[in-house]
């Protein structure tokens, strides 16, 4: 049985609507005013949480260490250090962003990228921690996060089955009792073809934990489908307008799209229901509009029922259509007016 997880008063689990996380990442474009506006827009769209990233360029890499040359990358030609310098969220912004989220009735948390970031987030009272895909093999960081005793959400992108299993074991042994894994494809953007949502129920059964989706595809289709496969958490990058630019803007949702995700993912969750056959209470009135056998012409007593004087039509007040062939050739027991639903006492 998969247990619910309480994240700052919000129950997350199969019996609750999906937990929607708006990932700000670097879409603030180094403007605190814009970052606060992103929080406001995410709350207005109905997201449950806003997620930040807590690092500095210096905690991630060194100047001159690496330049991205991948032809398929949005960041081709950019030096890694400069990219992180542009994308990082200044640590002094975290408290006003956390406070704004709380004012808007939304949860704020972050992905720490080193142990100093965990200490900093603990001072802010972060209610949950996110482990990013590229950090899911950083066992010292995993132990540090697990030791807080807070719930952990971990992306599984760019990791082998063995690496995920090791990460889960490290977290559990270090004190993590509430864990959610996110299926993730660490390409930016991801394609529907490499998203492989069928992994979600398999991963849930394999590790015995809740599983969600960290979705880097365009639009909301993959996320809605993930909910139908049992995802309890959806994380999507979020911006005010893709046209404003930013390191992650190309595959980020805009406010009206995030609202659509909130609405449609909940509809998908509600629609899953349970295994059901037969007539539901809501359908009972609709049974009237099934077909049945009616007299199509006036029929005299003793006259045989034929294809010319009886028909299968709506509504369903007469004998069921399955009796049509059985009725043909039988004599009417009394006069039958055209438009009368047939019943056994009439033949």
From TrEMBL:
Q: What is its EC number?
A: 2.5.1.97
Please indicate if the UniProt record lists Isomerase as a keyword.
no
The molecular function terms of the Gene Ontology recorded here are: transferase activity
Q: Which UniProt keywords apply?
A: Transferase
Q: What class of enzyme is it?
A: transferase
Q: What is this protein called?
A: Pseudaminic acid synthase
Which gene is annotated as encoding this protein in its UniProt record? pseI
Entry's PROSITE patterns? AFP_LIKE (PS50844)
InterPro entries, A to Z? AFP_Neu5c_C_sf (IPR036732), Aldolase_TIM (IPR013785), PseI-like (IPR051690), PseI/NeuA/B-like_N (IPR013132), Pseudaminic_synth_PseI (IPR020030), SAF (IPR013974), SAF_AFP_Neu5Ac (IPR006190), SAF_PseI/NeuA/NeuB (IPR057736)
Occurrences of domain AFP-like (ranges): 292-347
Name the source's superkingdom: Bacteria
- Do the record's keywords include Iron? no
Short name of one Pfam family for this protein? Answer: NeuB
Species, as recorded = Pontibacter ruber
